[in-house]
């Protein structure tokens, strides 16, 4: 605060300046300056009025809580330092990117002032720009996560309902058919890759015979292979985004059985490169996460559906399910935690529906048709 005397047009005047910053939230700062006061006494009286007004304004802003950008900044800082964070580094960075990119319209708003209308507008903007339903669901979840964190940390007091509640992401009118290769297409892919001596042949075969993710295959070492018990001990995965080897996506280890075909391939790879630490060959495209582009290009060249690398995992699962392997065993081998994911592959394989229509006997048998022909001939003979 300050009261100053100055001269203007030959006249002595007084000015008042008051600046207040919140002790609870240093980002909350209000200030006001008044000039042209005739006397020092008038300046002192005006200073008291301004001080009272600005104090009330700071109190109001404190009650409204932090702005959305302040909450996002504080959430980011806390989560970066949190050793017990439940989400992976990739998920954390993806969520932060979503918040920074798609919630800019909320930045100046106080978190308690944000309502359903603002959240729905953000989701509509994402939809207009062609973002998928899953993208919108993730965006909503990221916003929801910051609110829940702020409530748990005591940064939002008095809130009874999150603005994301009852905001529904619109479902697409038509479900997109997931990518999958038929058994014939799988065989053609492998056959053509072998004939053309494609360098990715061993990678694709191993993916199709294990259902392992790209990162899990990339990180696979010979020390993970148990030839005596015909199994792969799977506990790690390569992350091309951060160029690091970490735990698997599900964050737990699992065993993958080695089939006769796979064992033959592994032994061949071992004999070819006995000094190599990794089971599969190294490619710079793989290091950079470009494995899908390589597969898609080759699929196009040989005239089959162009699919992404992750589709090989889906092919593995559906082939096992189609061959009568229980969904529980397939889920265990592939390392899925979510039953909903498993249900998707069960539906793709069609194992639940198989044989359901077998008892619909509506077509006449050859014997029944012949019997009717004989009866008709007898009828004509009797009436001739």
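Q: What amino acid sequence fits the structure above?
A:
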């Amino acid at each position: 605060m300050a009261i100053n005397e100055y001269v203007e047009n030959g006249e002595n005047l007084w000015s008042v300046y008051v600046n207040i910053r919140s002790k609870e939230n240093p980002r909350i700062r209000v200030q006001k300056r008044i000039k042209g006061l005739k006397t020092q006494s008038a300046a002192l009286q005006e200073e008291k009025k301004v001080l009272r007004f600005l104090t009330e304004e700071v109190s109001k802003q404190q009650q409204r809580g932090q702005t959305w950008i302040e909450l996002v900044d504080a959430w980011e800082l806390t989560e970066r330092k949190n050793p017990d964070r439940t989400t992976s580094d990739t998920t954390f960075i993806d969520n932060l990117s979503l918040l920074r990119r798609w919630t800019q319209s909320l930045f100046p708003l106080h978190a308690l002032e944000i309502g359903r209308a603002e959240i729905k507008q953000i989701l509509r903007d994402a939809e207009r720009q062609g973002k998928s339903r899953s993208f919108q669901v993730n965006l909503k979840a990221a916003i929801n996560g910051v609110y829940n964190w702020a409530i748990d940390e005591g940064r939002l007091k008095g809130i009874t309902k999150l603005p994301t509640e009852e905001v529904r992401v619109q479902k697409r009118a038509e479900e997109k058919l997931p990518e999958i290769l038929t058994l014939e297409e799988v065989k053609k892919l492998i056959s053509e890759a072998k004939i053309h001596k494609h360098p990715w042949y061993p990678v694709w075969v191993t993916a199709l015979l294990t259902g392992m993710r790209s990162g899990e295959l990339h990180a696979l070492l010979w020390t993970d292979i148990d030839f005596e018990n015909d199994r792969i001990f799977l506990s790690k995965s390569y992350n091309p985004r951060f160029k690091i080897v970490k735990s698997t996506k599900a964050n737990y280890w699992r065993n993958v059985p080695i089939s006769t075909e796979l064992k033959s391939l592994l032994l061949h790879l071992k004999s070819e490169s006995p000094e190599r630490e990794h089971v599969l060959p190294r490619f710079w495209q793989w290091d950079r996460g470009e494995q899908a582009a390589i597969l898609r290009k080759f699929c196009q060249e040989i005239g089959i559906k162009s699919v992404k690398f992750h589709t090989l995992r889906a092919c593995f699962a559906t082939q096992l399910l189609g061959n009568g392997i229980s969904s529980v065993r397939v889920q265990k081998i592939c390392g899925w935690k979510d039953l909903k994911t498993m249900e998707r592959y069960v539906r793709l394989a069609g194992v639940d529906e198989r044989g359901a229509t077998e008892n619909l006997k509506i077509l006449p048998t050859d014997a029944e048709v012949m019997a009717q022909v004989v009866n008709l001939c007898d009828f004509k003979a009797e009436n001739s």
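Q: And what stands out in the fold?
A: Residues 190 and 346 are 24 Å apart (CA to CA).
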